[in-house]
Amino acid sequence: MFEWLVSEGLSTNQILFRLRAYNAPTKSGKIWNRRTVQSILTNPSYAGRTYAFTTAQGKKRFTRPLEKWIEIPGVTPAIVSQEMFDEAQRQLRINREKSSRNCKHDYLLRGHVRCRQCGQVYTGEMTNSRTYRCAGRKKAHVPVVRCSNKGWRADKLEAIVWDELSAYLGNRDLIIAELEKEKQAAGQTSAFETEIKQVERQLKAAEYEQHQLLQWALKGFPENQVEAENRRLNKAKETLNAQKTELEAQLKASQNAVINVPNLERFIEDMQKRLPELDFEGKRLALDMLDITVWLDRESIEVTGTIDPESGIVRTPSSFSSPLSNSIINWCNFILLIGEGARG
After folding, report:
1. How far apart are CA 111 and CA 317, in angstroms?
2. 50 beta partners
């Protein structure tokens, strides 16, 4: 199920229907339902992470905030890697943001636009015209301080982003220069490996402390003291895991920093040929494949994405491959600063 979600980009409904088509048994022997699929894909125990004190009893039983959970290391064997689980959560979030459910109008950049001020996604709304507005302006999303970032007219924003993106992807020299920067920034492999080992040792130490903390809780130590210490450990582990993920990405880039110029040139040529021919759905797929994010900050537009010629994108709208590519040989990240644009 995790592989279907991450590698094929299936929605929870598509996973549900596939399980039913395969007559895969559930734990209880009953028919699969969407809630069961969702609960499995979001359960950290499948990545080997088990928690205690996840719920509390008031008038009704409720789930406690995540920072108050206490992790019990080494209890549950991992079925999927932590990287796979984290990528699954990311894909679930993307699926939610890009869902066309209840969307009465077409928005090319749906799920790809975010607010630089508050980090919330921009959603499409129909007022006098199609408009992108920051979800952080809604009280439901930000109950205390509402975002002040402005809305953008959809037709102008979509045209600006697509035109700038098309121009960039057709510039061979600029893309090769970006690849050279990625190669030079990869650094030394041995240094990354040493740093990763140091972070892993720190993570093990934090996990041991958390295991000891559970013993404190069971022996009746003050709850507020246990919770405060657990929050500190969770924050430390979160920071360490982020460092480890970044270091592993840099290590992988260092190990694979090879530029295949002929392959890249074929990619650019194919881009120039295919982009003008794409229909709405084809453009949506291209945005997904390039991992495009459009950051809006009042009058400014910033477009970030990733080019990977090995992913085989932009063939025909029916032959786009999975949004995740296993190859990073030719990839490079890019940023387009467009400046003042189409704010509405």
Report:
1. 19
2. 72
Q: Are 144 and 118 in contact (CB under 8 A)?
A: no
The answer to whether 71 and 49 have CB atoms below 8 angstroms apart is yes
pLDDT class of 336 with cuts at 50, 70, 90: low
Residue 100 has pLDDT above 60, yes or no: no
Contacts of 106 (CB under 8 A, 6+ apart): 280
Query: Per-residue pLDDT tens for 136-191?
Result: 876 544 445 678 888 899 999 999 999 888 888 877 777 777 766 665 655 566 77
d(CA 57, CA 64): 10
Q: Which residues contact 58 (CB under 8 A, 6 or more apart)?
A: none
**What is the predicted pLDDT for the residue at 256?**
60
Please choose, from the candidates 195, 190, 182, 159, the residue with its C-alpha nearest in 3D space to the C-alpha of residue 306: 182
Alpha-carbon span 146 to 63, nearest angstrom: 27
Q: Quick one: which H or E segment has residue 334?
A: strand 332-337
Mean pLDDT on 249-259: 66
Burial of 224 (0-12, 13-18, 19+ CB in 10 A): exposed
Dist CA 11 CA 338 (whole Å) = 33
pLDDT at 332 over 70: no
Model confidence over 69-81: pLDDT tens digits? 777 777 788 888 8
Is 202 within 8 Å of 243 (Cβ atoms)? no
**Does the pLDDT value for residue 209 go beyond 80?**
yes
DSSP annotation of 171: -
Q: Where are the alpha helices (DSSP H) in the chain?
A: 2-8, 12-21, 34-41, 82-97, 154-169, 172-185, 189-218, 223-255, 261-274, 280-289
Q: Which CATH class is domain 2-94?
A: alpha beta
